[in-house]
Structure formats: structure tokens, C-alpha cells
Amino acid sequence: MSHITEKTFSTYNQEQGKVYAQTRRDYHPSVYQAVIGHHTSTGGQLDTLLDVGCGPGNVARALAPHFAHAIGIDPSEGMIATARSLGGVTSTSEPIQFEVSTAEELSPVADSSVDLIAAGNAAHWFDMPRFWAAAARVLKPGGSVALWTTGDIRAHPSVSNAAAIQDAMEEHHRQLEPYYLPGNFLVRNRYKDLPLPWTLPKPVSELDESTFFRKDWNDDDEQFFEGLPEADLDTFEKMMATGSAQTRWRQAHPDDVGTERDVIRILRRRVEGLMREAGVEEGKDVVKGTVLGTVLVVKKKV
């Protein structure tokens, strides 16, 4: 897969980062437990955490209490400004360090200094050959790289007219495909095609294929985000607007943003109409979603 640099989130200013932080839900504790549990049960230590593509810092803040030191990096100055404003501390009450850097450089991180590299919903934007080489450089022997992603948001079966609403969501994604980058397709197939260290034309031999771990969240009621995604239609519209393809569509159609021609507003009206057909009264139209997710863990050889 050819790498295309993602510029939608990396060019966020602080206000956009703030809105993103307020709208995006955090991951369910079971996701963090799966990551920490596998890392420690396979010999990983809890000295230094590195959150790559940290955005506003949610993952760093959730995992930092397990570690003595924590660093979050992101190429977006706006995201880093937001992360710094929200703060966070480690198990030793040391503030999380947030810095502007890329997944391909991992600066200012020293060689063989990191126990766990985490990247939540970010690896699909990385230049994976360069990332894996950088990860092998900064990881301690026995350290872990944990990458995770969500799949598509789907209508929960408990929602009135769920099948028809799901069809509307699928149509929405088809309309947005001209605005997809390769990373969007990696998310939709839950990293099944994500390049791994041993599948590269030039494999990164320091990372261990024999200990590779994958865990899938496949049940509609097995939560991947904190709380079952549930929102009124106004919040649903705001949540959908944080998607990268939706953002690129809006950048290409600035005069349509917020109007009835907006691709997100069109989806909202479609969902609204389908709920009315099912007898849901105005003001009670709450959308519930289910998100299936996947965690991958790669270890550095001892």
C-alpha cells in the first residue's frame, strides 16, 4: 500500500483539537486492560509509555497512571496544545510530556528507552515501514507496540428501524469514498491489511512475528468505547463531522457546510426520517451505535 501523508488532523488548530477532544469518546477500560495485560504478561515493564499520534492525549492520560514516565507525540501543533491544556500525570505524579513529532521520527525519544508504544486510531496514517523501524529503535528489548482501531459505527440492533438506518450509513460511506485515503480503508477492514514488520519488502527483524497478538471486539454489546455510543441527532451530527473523510468533503464544499446540502446533514435527515417511520417521536430520537474494534500487539525481541 502506497503511503499518503494525512493532513486533515495534522493541520488542526487548537480550537479544532478542543472540539475533537470534546466530541470523540474515550476507549472502554477493556481496551486499555487488554493492552496493559498483554504487555505485562509477556514481560513488558512499566517505566516509560509513548503515545504516538496522541491527538488531544486521551490514550496517554488513560495509560499514564500505569507508568513512571509518559510522552505523547502528534504532528499537529493544535492537538498538542489541546493535550497540554488537558494535562495528565503518571504513577509518580510526573506530568505527561506532550511534543510535536511524527510517527516516523519519534523524536525526542531516546534509543531503547520505551516500554510500551501505543497508538489508538492513528496507525492507519503512519508510513508503516518508517514507523516500524523507528519503533524498533526506541523500544527496549521485550517492549511492546500496541495499535488499535475501530471499524465503522453501526446502528445498534436495539434502535428502531436499525436495518434501514444501517443501510443509510453504508450509503453515506459510499458517497464519501472519493474523499477516502488508504488509511480509511484500513480502518474499515480493521487493520487486516496493515503492513506488519515481517510483511514489509525490507522486514524489521528486531520485531517478533512469533509473539504477534490480535484481539477483536466482535459482539454488538462488547463495548470498544466508553459507554455505548448514544446521542441525540445534534450530537450524532457533530460526532460524524470529526471523521477525516467527512472533514475532507466539507473542505471541498465550504458553501454547503451546515446546510441541507451538507453530506452529514443529509445523513442526519435520513436517519431522522427513518426513526419517524418507526414511530419515534420528535425529541426522543436517540441514535445508538455499536463499534467493533481490534487491538494488535507486536513485541521487540529480547
UniProtKB/TrEMBL annotation:
Signal peptide: none annotated. The keyword Transport does not apply. GO terms for biological process: methylation. Residues 50-146 form the Methyltransferase type domain. SUPFAM superfamilies: S-adenosyl-L-methionine-dependent methyltransferases. GO terms for molecular function: S-adenosylmethionine-dependent methyltransferase activity. Keywords: Methyltransferase, Transferase. This is S-adenosyl-L-methionine-dependent methyltransferase. The lineage of its organism: Eukaryota, Fungi, Dikarya, Ascomycota, Pezizomycotina.
